[in-house]
Amino acid sequence: MRQNFGLRMFMGVLLALGVTVTAQAQQTIKIAYTDPLSGPFAQVGDANLKQMNYIIDHMNAKGGALGKKFELVPFDNKSNPADALIALKSATDQNMPFIMQCSGSNIAAALIEAINKHNDRNPDNRIIYLNCGAVATELTNEQCSFWHFRFDLHVGMKAEVMSRAIPKDVTKVYMINQDYLFGQSVQRDVKAFLAKNRPDVTVVGDELIPLGKIKDFSPYITKIKASGAQALVTGNWGPDMNLLIKAGIDAGADLRYFTFYAHLAGGATAIGAGGEGKVLSVMSFGENIAPEIGNKEAEAFTNGFRQLHKFDFAAATFRTIFEYLQSAINKAGSVDPTKIAFAMEGLSQKDFLGYDSTMRKDDHQIISAYYVGLFKKGVKYDAEGTGLGWATTATIQSKDVNQPSTCKMKRPSA
Amino acid sequence: MEVFIVSLLNGLVYGMLLFMLASGLTLILSMMGVLNFAHASAYMLGAYFAYTISLYVGFWPALIIAPILCGLVGAAIEMWGLRRVHRNGHIAELLFTFGLALIIEKGVQMGWGLLPVPYRVPALLDFPLFSIYGTNFPAYRAFMLLISGMMFGSIWLGLTRTRIGLVIQAALTHPEMVGALGHNVPRIFTLVFAAGTALAGLAGVIGGNYQVTEPAMAFTMGPIVFVVVVFGGLGSLTGCFIASILMGLIQTFAVVFDVSLADLLAKFGFIVTSQTPLAEVLTVTLPRIGALLPFLMMVLILVFRPRGLMGTRDT
Predict the structure, then answer these.
(1) What are the residue boundaries of the structural domains of chain A, listed by start?
(2) What ipTM goes with this model?
């Protein structure tokens, strides 16, 4: 009898706990976030997480969406598609309406496929994939999905910006990219746009490296130097980017570096003072843009981040994500993924710097302003305490990055 | 020529780092018959200890203290762990060290976090030493060569010219006999194990800031060190040295030569096109399989010369 009583008490406590958990779940809008939080790319995931939490605090202070606050739930995927799918399973098991993933187009491709299947089979438990940085061109062309929204420009668009940003005196370039979906995408698209926009540029070397495996790039630098290249074009990110540039600077190689990701966390430290005027980055945001165009509010926002962390705020795309989410949820009037997805496609609004942006309806690819930054002295905000920072050398408006898509979107009937 | 000399230097630096790790492992393996999976973990611990110590007292004291700490850890592992497990045979030892490697990795993750730590080259050595054909050779790499060269010299002298070295050499092949002559063989085992881990720790101290100090560094370095030990042959320091330098050079030069099997076949007048069977495999260039070459060589040597390059007995 006494045992029974204890058991009942226990069940009662469990029940009460269950009730409070569901009550809390209804108060927040949960977003599963999966990226490498351990392994060679842990630094990238960690930097993303810090910036997202900063943005979420800002959005929640402004009231969240439908009176509910956003809540980020991180899952480590160790740069491994199988682990990302486990994260997806946990997210759908807990009825989370959104999953976010930034690093690794191979992982993004696996997620898109799994989400398509899941949403087909479970119409009452659907999930939207918010892509915050997996940019292989294919993901919004051949593999495009109604449930996938990409908030960073794809490689084709970035490559076009890059081909126009390469200075006139550079005619010989060497390409190094990571050997997977994204790196191959960069390799193909940069070559195509160089042939179109800069026929005078020859690619003297073109190479793929294993992802996240190389700790010392000195042998590559030797080879690049021997090829007679004036500049290195690379889509590498994380340690593959930072160690590559560091090896080049340490060797004192007379090279310029045209990159897609040198402006992210760890990049400035790796380049150091030796890279003055040598590194270009095609970027979605830089801390000096706001003061350059006189946007006080955006400047205060990034300045707030500087007070808290040792690296720079680079994630304007993440802020765009949450601003689009807010608008789409408010427009849909509920946290139902299907309604939100329909509300989000075709949505247009100003980004936080005040430039136009659109979530293109045909392929769910964001079209937003993009920038080219040069790493140099004498900027208002230096990067990672190096004394040098990213000065904006070109601003490309969203209408100029708009490339056609081959997507044939399948929309759900509901 | 330019590429050759610069790559030679880079290959030497990497090869010597491998040797520092492999020399300890080959001593432990050939003497105690223990395939120590946790050896590369000592390398990682060395780097992390050095990072933490250098925060308080600078790099130079860390260069001495961190390897000693690693050696103490090694001695403790041998005395209180391995010696007990030893009674249950080789499989138990293997599993013990494997478990230990995983525990150390988790411990490092819990103690220092998942992110790489900012363990940097000391300012005193952070300058280009000399320049060949316009490529700077950082002073720190020369320092690495110096340390590892000194280490090779002192181990070699210690093993061949001192009394304890002779006892160790004898215990390598005839432990019972050495014991019967009145030497404390278990203590020699502890000494060798501690010295081996200390050497790995020293490699970590100077390798951690040359590469990246992160929790995965043990598992990226581990397999290649085993390859060196197997390739060099059991019980031979010279074989281990040659194998290390060879692996360092192979991995460095593999990056530089953009050739594939298709190019080789073309020399014999056989042109590979996309229609050729296995064209995908034939056109893969050397840099893309560079990391695989040491393992390929290990497989070949196990098939054709199981005792390794200079080994005295079969693996």
Answers:
(1) 29-153+313-367, 156-283+369-400
(2) 0.82
Give the residue numbers in B contacting A (CB under 8 Å), as ranges.
2-3, 6-7, 10-11, 14, 109, 114-116, 128, 131, 134-136, 138, 210-212, 214-216, 220, 252-253, 255-256, 258, 287-288, 291
Terminal Cα-to-Cα distance of chain A (whole angstroms): 53
Q: pLDDT tens, A71-108?
A: 999 999 999 999 999 999 999 999 999 999 999 999 99
The CATH classification of domain A29-153+313-367, taken from the options 3.30.70.20, 3.40.630.10, 3.40.50.2300, 3.30.710.10: 3.40.50.2300
Q: Which two tokens stand for residue B111?
A: 């103690």
Rounded Cα distance, A325 and A72, in Å: 13
Q: Where are the alpha helices (DSSP H) in A122-272?
A: 155-165, 181-197, 218-226, 239-250, 267-271
Q: Chain A: give the shortest CA distance to residue B138, in Å.
A: 7
Q: DSSP letter string over A82-112? A: HHHHHHHHHHHHTT-SEEEE-S-HHHHHHHH
Nearest CA in chain B to A209: B288
The percentage of residues in chain B with a pLDDT greater than 70, rounded to a whole number, is: 99
Give how far A377 is from chain B: nearest CA, Å: 21
pLDDT tens digits along B24-67: 898 888 777 788 899 999 999 999 999 999 999 999 999 999 99
d(CA B48, CA B111): 10
User: What is the crossing angle of helices A181-197 and A105-121, to 10°?
Assistant: 110
* Minimum distance, in Å, between the CA of residue A151 and any CA atom of chain B: 26
Same fold, A29-153+313-367 and A156-283+369-400: yes
B261: enclosing H helix or E strand: helix B261-267
**Partner-chain contact B109 A225, CB within 8 Å:** no
CB spacing of B135 vs A253 below 8 angstroms: yes
**Digit-coded pLDDT (tens) for B264-275:** 788 787 777 777
Per CB-CB distance under 8 Å, the chain A contacts of B212 are 215, 239, 243
User: What is the chain A residue with the closest CA to B110?
Assistant: A38
Count of positions (residues) in chain B: 315
From the list A219, A239, A252, the residue facing B255 with the nearest CB is A219
Tell me the backbone φ, ψ of residue A187, rounded to 5 degrees.
-55, -50
Cβ contact (<8 Å) for B135 and A226? no
Residues (pLDDT < 70) of chain A are 1-26, 414
CATH of domain A156-283+369-400: 3.40.50.2300
Closest by CA position to A342, among listed A354, A332, A330: A332
- For A252, the closest of B128, B211, B256 (CB atoms) is B128
Q: Are A125 and A93 in contact (CB under 8 A)?
A: no
- Separation CA B249–CA B228 (nearest Å): 13
Helices (H), A198-314: 218-226, 239-250, 267-271, 289-293, 296-308
List of chain B residues whose C-beta atoms are within 8 Å of the C-beta of residue A225: 2, 134-135
> How close A314 gets to chain B, by Cα (Å)?
19
* Spatial distance between the Cα atoms of B274 and A86, rounded to a whole number of angstroms: 38
Neighbours of A132 (CB within 10 A): 23
What is the reported pLDDT for A23?
Answer: 44
